[in-house]
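Is this the right way to post structure tokens for a design question? Let me know if I should format differently. Anyway, here goes:
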């Protein structure tokens, strides 16, 4: 089984050192990519990184290794505006002829091997988020009010008929074993990504940065869409690894499979330092040194474990 990742640099405007990312310490993002991918490889999965030319050169400079590196994200967007398009490309069009896979965000992964019942799920995700009385509910109703009940917006018109079930599938990871669901999600997601309705949103905003304007709309096109399509096709919720509601993982929640998703803690220096120390104790020293040299021009001083 393959575990896929995506590193799409276009939303960071082509210079990671100068522009940074959405992490308070951008170095740690790459520690966690190395940690997650090496863990999944140790569990027997084939690791596949989808990236663009600039991203591939960065990962090579850092010595972060995958079983496969696919350079296919330079032109994944017809119109640059969606930070999720690189990730969604990786596990839709990037899959090619369908085969089961795991997709992990760069800030998510498993400390222990995912249980077989999870890997065998038709469709699995981290958890669900209920969007009633949230910004995401308002987005769904705006779409329904402003679009006809035809493809690709018909799925949102269908969803509002279940007002108590306006949910999304938290996609810190995605496990997909269903060819039909995968095909339907691919069809809808890219029709939405490229639809002119979002051109009007951008035009009316007056904002020059399209990624900023459409930031939270990414959830509508990935997590809400996945949940709605699966529910419409099969009438049930997806398999989840955690029993919680929302985007963040609550402290103290039962998590015997030691899944992690940093998500909203990326700007918390204390938590980020803890993850960095954890990764340092696992990834090869040569990798942590190359990451530090890339950003800071000096090694980490031999803190991490030796090559495994």
């Amino acid at each position: 089984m393959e575990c896929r990742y995506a590193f799409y640099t276009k939303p960071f405007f082509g210079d990671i050192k100068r522009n940074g990312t959405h992490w308070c310490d951008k170095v740690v993002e790459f520690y966690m990519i190395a940690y997650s991918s090496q863990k999944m490889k140790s569990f027997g999965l084939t690791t596949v990184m989808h990236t663009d030319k600039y991203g591939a050169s960065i990962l090579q400079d850092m010595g972060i290794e995958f079983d496969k590196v696919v350079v296919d994200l330079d032109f994944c967007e017809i119109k640059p505006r969606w930070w999720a398009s690189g990730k969604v490309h990786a596990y839709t069009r990037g899959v090619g002829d369908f085969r089961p896979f795991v997709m992990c965000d760069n800030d998510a992964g498993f400390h222990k091997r995912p249980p077989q019942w999870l890997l065998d799920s038709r469709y699995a995700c981290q958890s669900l988020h209920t969007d009633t009385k949230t910004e995401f509910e308002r987005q769904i109703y705006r779409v329904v009010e402003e679009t006809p009940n035809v493809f690709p917006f018909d799925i949102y018109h269908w969803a509002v008929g279940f007002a108590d079930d306006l949910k999304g599938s938290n996609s810190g990871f995605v496990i997909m074993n269903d060819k039909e669901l995968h095909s339907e999600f691919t069809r809808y997601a890219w029709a939405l990504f490229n639809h002119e309705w979002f051109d009007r949103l951008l035009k009316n905003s007056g904002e020059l940065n399209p990624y900023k304007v459409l930031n939270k709309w990414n959830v509508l096109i990935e997590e809400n869409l996945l949940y709605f399509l699966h529910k419409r096709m099969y009438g049930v919720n997806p398999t989840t690894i955690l029993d919680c509601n929302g985007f963040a993982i609550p402290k103290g929640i039962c998590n015997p499979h030691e899944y992690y998703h940093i998500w909203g803690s990326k700007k918390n220096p204390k938590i980020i330092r803890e993850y960095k120390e954890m990764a340092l104790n696992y990834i090869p020293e040569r990798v942590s040194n190359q990451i530090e040299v890339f950003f800071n021009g000096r090694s980490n001083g031999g803190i991490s474990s030796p090559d495994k």
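Format looks fine. Someone answered above. Worth noting: The chain has a mean pLDDT of 93. The longest strand covers residues 167-176.
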